[in-house]
Specification:
By secondary structure, the protein is an alpha/beta fold. The chain contains three helices and nine strands; from the N terminus they run βββββαβαβαββ. The strands form two sheets. The protein has a seven-stranded mixed barrel with strand order 1-7-6-5-2-8-9. Helix 1 (about 65-75) packs across helix 2. It is globular, with a radius of gyration of 13 Å.
């Protein structure tokens, strides 16, 4: 089932969906060496994000989170792609930094609220994010 999206950071990815139950701050909330959620108050604490397509309503927190996300992407311990309901500059910049500094892509896309119920039940997502428009395939 294809879903149209807006590209924030171009690229392609495919992986199991990981739906965040609440926003996550990458700064202090993600271990970039392991991909583990380390925020002990987050309901998904200790889960591993590596290789998943992260589905999140929005980001949370410190601008330093961009560097943590970029480092996780560089190490291969970060998400394979990110789908957001609300624009988040910190998340977007982190993925942009990974492309610019390390030549490692983690596409980031923005979806419409009408498509959110379908995405939060997805088992696997494929992202094809061109320079402006993106397509998500839900499986």
């Amino acid at each position: 089932m294809p879903i149209a999206a807006i590209t924030l950071v171009p690229g392609t990815s495919d992986g199991p969906a990981f739906v965040l139950q609440e926003p996550l701050s990458f700064w202090g909330g993600l271990d970039a060496t392991t991909g583990e959620i380390t925020d002990r108050w987050h309901p998904q604490s200790r889960a591993i994000l590596a290789g998943h397509v992260l589905v999140m309503e929005s980001g949370r927190g410190s601008s330093s989170g961009s560097s943590v996300l970029a480092e996780a992407i560089r190490r291969g311990t970060g998400p394979a792609g990110i789908v957001m309901l609300t624009r988040d500059a910190i998340v977007t910049v982190g993925a942009m930094i990974a492309v610019e500094l390390y030549d490692v892509s983690c596409p980031v896309v923005l979806v419409a609220a009408a498509d959110w119920p379908t995405l939060v039940t997805a088992k696997r997502l494929t992202l094809d994010a061109g320079s402006q428009r993106a397509t998500l395939t839900v499986r």
